[in-house]
Amino acid sequence: MTPPISRPAFAALASLVAASAFLAPTMTQACACGCGVFSVGAGNLMPDGNKGSVFVEYDFMDQSTNWSGSSRASADDNGDKKIKTDFLTLGGQIRVAQNWTVTAEVPAWNRAFTTDTGDGVETFKHAALGDVRLMATYTGLAKDMSLGLIAGVKLPTGDHSYANFDPDTEISTGSTDLLLGAYKQGALNRNGDIQYFVQGVWDKPVDWRATYRPGEELDTAIGVSWSGWSLAGGKLRVAPVVQMIGSVRARDHGSDGHPTDSGYERAVLAPGIELQSGPWRLFTDIGVPVYQRVNGDQLTSPTLFKTMLTRSF
């Protein structure tokens, strides 16, 4: 059982949140998608003592509301009308040494983009593989693996050449990105059925196309779960989760970028539930933005959906 949170643990937690606050102001604010929100928070693969795991994740976002600054704006102010995306990700994690795990994620997107072409409003649909993410996690900062560091890379493996999508709505950014992050998790009470977690991942493009450089992005999550509820004679564990996910993304640049209409700050309240039976774990949540500020005019989604099925071994 993970020991209850102590003063040093609170200090580590505060340090991670403070680091997020320190990094965020360095980014002026990008991109209409904001799909990095799905890469942090409950359900994601933080090391848990198992040898490894495999997972399938489905996310959904329907960006149908035009937003300007910190409030809703008229749809007439934005030539883009709607971006509806299904995200499907296959992946796995394996412990390769006592203090090291590696994670691979292979996404596929199905996107419908509705925009005013000048000759009328049209909808373009495209499905393709997305950008692969490879990450290594060091868990040796605490004996129980409750504190760790993350380093990895996002590769430009996806399609970024579909003619009817803008650079900031393409399935791939076309860039190679450095991923850096950290996590902390543990118990808030003595019997360990109330758990907390905090996680942050910074996505920094380091190589990009000559005409388009996507903005860097910082995604953080902090949450609490309660696992004291069980069904089927204790064979099915049910854990409600409450979390807050924060995102800051910088403006796009390049001749094909739109720096005046890219970049944002956003806070999403995402209550969810986790079901676990033996090696199987199912997590789902619904995210609702409680604060968002965008540059220019951008399409936002009133809700975000996430479901993840994991098999540990």
TL;DR?
The protein is mainly beta.
CATH architecture: Beta Barrel
Low-confidence stretches: 1-32
CATH topology: Lipocalin
For CATH, the homologous superfamily is named as: Autotransporter beta-domain
CATH class: Mainly Beta
**Structural domains: how many:** 1
The termini sit apart by 19 Å
As a percent range, the share of helical residues equals under 10%
By secondary-structure content and strand pairing, the structural class works out as: mainly beta
Strand content: over 45%
Number of strands: 17
Q: How can the largest sheet be summarized?
A: 17 strands, antiparallel
Q: What is the N-to-C succession of helices and strands?
A: HEEEEEEEEEEEEEEEEE
Coarse shape: globular
Q: Quickly count the helices.
A: 1
Task: Give an overview in words.
- The protein has 313 residues and is mainly β.
- The protein has one domain: Autotransporter beta-domain (Lipocalin).
- The protein is built from 1 helix and 17 strands.
- The chain has one helix at 7-23, and strands at 52-63, 65-69, 71-72, 80-97, 100-116, 121-129, 133-138, 147-154, 176-187, 194-207, 217-226, 229-231, 236-249, 264-269, 272-277, 280-300, 304-312.
- The longest helix is centred in the N-terminal third of the chain and has 17 residues, at 7-23.
- The protein is globular and about 60 Å long.
